Amino acid sequence: MRVFWADGYDAASIDRLCRATGMPRASLYQDFGGKEGLFLAAIAHYVETRIGPVADALEPSGSLDADLSTYFARVVALATDDSQTPGCLISCVLAEVAGANDTFRLELDRRFTALEDRIAQRLDHEVASGAVTDTRALAGMLAAVSRGIMLRARSGAQAQDLDKIARVAVRASAREIV
Amino acid sequence: MRVFWADGYDAASIDRLCRATGMPRASLYQDFGGKEGLFLAAIAHYVETRIGPVADALEPSGSLDADLSTYFARVVALATDDSQTPGCLISCVLAEVAGANDTFRLELDRRFTALEDRIAQRLDHEVASGAVTDTRALAGMLAAVSRGIMLRARSGAQAQDLDKIARVAVRASAREIV
DNA sequence: ATAATTACAGAATGATCGTTCTGTATCTTG
DNA sequence: CAAGATACAGAACGATCATTCTGTAATTAT
After folding, report:
1. pLDDT beneath 50: ranges in chain A
2. Count of CB contacts below 8 A, A vs B?
3. Which of B4, B43, B82, B141 to mutate to test the interface with A (most CBs of A within 10 A)?
4. Is residue A6 part of a domain?
5. B34 conformational bin, left if phi > 0, alpha if psi -120 to 50, beta if neither
6. What CATH number did the domain enclosing B139 receive?
7. What is the ipTM of this complex?
8. Which residue gives the smallest C-alpha to C1' distance to C22?
9. Which of A20, A95, B11, B153 could bridge to B79 as Cys pair (CB 3.0-4.6 Å)?
């Protein structure tokens, strides 16, 4: 997973992947069918271990403001904590290969939609006790900001600068909902 | 340029690039020094011909709301108008290779910063006659939304859905500035 | 006209690629 | 114990890669 994240899909060689996973070549083909299958498995693992905790911040446990702040703090941390793996496997690597590979494009759409659903769910929880608004579009915007933050981290941006962006987004959400 | 945009950096072969540009192999090496140089030239051309017109919408010519709406309409159009080249050369292709190549990472940082500067400039123009606010962070957020929209387009999203996201972002900006 | 220079098609080069295969060691079963 | 199955290191395979080189045709200069 980290090799794909750091180097990209095409630049990640089977040799390198075997070494990094400690898995023999024959087993890789037997278990995953090839490079494509291994990549999809890496993404599933990334979603479970990295995106999962980020999205869990969206469980209603405090005010919307506090939950979104926690969510974005985790987004920024995920994107910047390890200089070897800047940004996001999905937004930076899967997105590139999605251009010419339909399997990957569908996977990208699926993963993006899942995050937006999660955000919209949290917003719906707030709206149920508030004003009528288009939570789906707001969720789309918050997801877009998250991805923009991931990309900015890939270019070398510091966490404190990304935190500022996140704060604007959280503020905007509060205003949109109220 | 379109080959890199559609296929990605590593998947774009020199053969394919020569055919697409109508340029003989020897000339490509003579003029650009190699694949890396050609890619950077393609990015410069993309910035001039595609990002340029988008950013020009930020010249103060109407209300901030109107200018940002025009800007985002162009972002969405750039990202979705041609199904062969979905998304953005910079946010989808350059960002991927930036992970393991410092030249590309610096270029990504440069291009991202340039767009943020442009947006901040437009916001400063508005603030000069209004309230005090952190235009840099707001510009960062608007740029992040733009990139998020580009990525969402790469996954196959339709323009009308992306327009909704843009509208939320424009509304948020108006509120932040006033 | 001839000689020199330029432009270009495509071959050559050395390397790398993803996938499949082979041989050997180890483990399991009867 | 022997036979069969499994796991694995790494070679083989056919293909592709980016870069450099070669030979030839076209153009330019004298």
Report:
1. none
2. 183
3. B141
4. no
5. left
6. 1.10.357.10
7. 0.89
8. A26
9. B153
| Residue B37 domain flag | no
Answer whether B155's CB lies under 8 Å from B91's CB. no
Q: What pLDDT digit, counting tens, does each position of B13-65 carry?
A: 888 888 888 888 888 888 888 899 999 999 999 999 999 999 999 999 998 99
What is d(CA A90, CA B147) in angstroms, rounded to the nearest whole number? 14
Domain membership flag for residue A16? no
Kindly state whether residue A118 falls inside one of the protein's structural domains.
yes
CB A27 within 7 Å, strand D = yes
- Number of structural domains in chain B: 1
Domain range for A137 is: 47-177
Whole-number distance in Å between B147 CA and C2 C1': 61
With a cut of 50, which residues of chain B have pLDDT below it?
none
